[in-house]
Amino acid sequence: MTDQHDPLEVIDKFLGALRSELAANPEMTYRIIKALPVSVSFEASDMVDIVNPLELISQHGAEKARELFQAFKPAELKKMARQVNLASTTDMARLSQADLIDLIISRGARKIAERSSSG
Length: 119
What we know:
This protein is mainly alpha-helical. The protein has two domains: about 1-40, no CATH class; about 45-119, no CATH class.
């Protein structure tokens, strides 16, 4: 005979484990949220390590991406640009937040266009 378990208790344990994993793994959380048909807002500081600026530009267009990038501090924008090889530290020295956003949008759009024309 098998052990009997209360279905709601089993589901509660599963959801508790899932919540713990999502809290510990923001990248997984972001991927799951993107797959859902809802709009969710995150704190920019929580997203700097997992947001791909090329993906934002590609999915939302330049103007919406520009709006989304405004939530990030200059240091966060620089980090994101370096992570996807859009700019070097030298390229971004002494740029304002607006200038950094312009650089990310223009170079990102160019990189996206190059990828789509070669593939």
